[in-house]
Amino acid sequence: MNEKPIAIVGAGLVGSLLGIYLSQRGYKVELFERRDDMRAGNMMGGKSINLALSDRGWKALRGVGIADEIMKIAIPMKGRMTHDMEGKTNFLPYGKEGQAIYSVSRAGLNCLLMSLAEQKGSKIHFNKRCKSISLKDASLIVEDPVTKQENHFFASRIFGTDGAFSAARLQMQLSTDRFEYSQHYLDYGYKELHVPPTKSGEHAMDKNCLHIWPRGKFMMIALPNIDGSFTCTLFFPFEGEESFSTLTTKESVKKFFDKTFPDAVPHMPTLLEDFFHNPSASLVTVRSYPWSFEDKMLLLGDAAHAIVPFYGQGMICGFEDCTVLNEIMDKYLTNPHDEAGWKKVFEETQKSRKPNSDAIAELAVANFVEMRDLVAHPDFILQKKIEAHFSTKHPDKWLPLYSMVTFSDLPYSYALERGRKQDQIMKKVLATPNISEKWNSTEVEEMMMSLVKNS
């Protein structure tokens, strides 16, 4: 085996999972993480969005035999529970009977993945910020953020998995020619809030739902935790009449929440403290290319393609990077001593993943509009009923976009293209006279069959 280990910059969710994949293939792996070890009680609170694990993510976890361990800290959510201004609720299932996405704590999952990576043989160096990378010889200089002590580390190759504001990606930008990079911010930010368990330790709301308060220009969501609490996230404009810029006093916050989320407020005893203590974070989409340099370095996860969280696919897309990389390694690398195939591995991985990461980035922004504006609209609810009914009868003809993204491993790029065609079909179906009365009739079914055939 090559004496030099593989270096991974960033021991977050994707980096830790990648460490497991590479260690299981027989490689010596060392991860460099700029933060403290969160397992020692140094978790960063107040700036997190709970994660929603779905089929692609579970596939990646099964690929290294750790899905059962992760399932122990996950809660199934079978659909969206919408809450209107009067506190009335409506349940919208995500998929077919038995299908669910799973709520899991970001920090809890990261801690478990790091421990599993170490158990498989990876070594994690904490408090080691990536200061610079030499792409030609796959070496990096890491710095202790406190002591400023520097260490020069030589690797066989480097993977950059250090998030949306990646130091590894910056080195690619500085060191290579024709590197494409863009970032786009929404005019919205997010703030983490909290619903504690009831006095008896139970969940204050149905724990098997993703709760959503759609309010047109903004929304709040709540995902369950295994301790009986919910992590709430307010997605809200930075500027405007109703925005973070105008909610500056406890009185204004209380008045706004009492009016806008009346059924949630009784479950949020620390609302005011949380609102002013927790930061308002930004929402960014990052696109870059190429992700690789020769056979020396490859970017994966948010370092290559950060997306906004509205499809619950940010982490999942990074996990799928690991799945695809592993499949391509099977194709070109015969054993851990094989050095010849790495350039092909890197090139094919980026070519395979780039169109799909771009597609899910587009879908994620579009789903924000759906969640905040459309999810409670009667036409939207009717459309979902029609699609579910038709898909059940003709699964070979129709798979709803959400199911393609969430409950399959079909390429994101295919889901985007097919979803657009199906949306055009549904616009014609919903324009049918008296559609709300005959949505499940033979007439509508035959109409859809004809439209699908000609699409």
Which percent range describes the beta-strand content? 15-25%
Kindly provide the radius of gyration, computed on alpha-carbon positions and rounded to a whole number of angstroms: 23 Å
Quote the average pLDDT. Answer: 93
CATH class of the largest domain: Alpha Beta
Number of helices: 15
Under CATH, the homologous superfamily of the largest domain reads: FAD/NAD(P)-binding domain
Question: What percent of the residues sit in helical stretches (DSSP H or I)?
Answer: 25-40%
Question: In what order do the strands lie side by side in the largest sheet?
Answer: 6-5-14-15-16-13-17
How many E strands? 19
CATH fold group of the largest domain: FAD/NAD(P)-binding domain
Described by the principal axes of the CA atoms, the overall outline is globular
Number of domains: 3
Query: Largest beta sheet, briefly?
Result: 7 strands, mixed
Ends distance: 53 Å
Helix-strand makeup class? alpha/beta
- CATH architecture of the largest domain, by name, is 3-Layer(bba) Sandwich
Low-confidence stretches: none
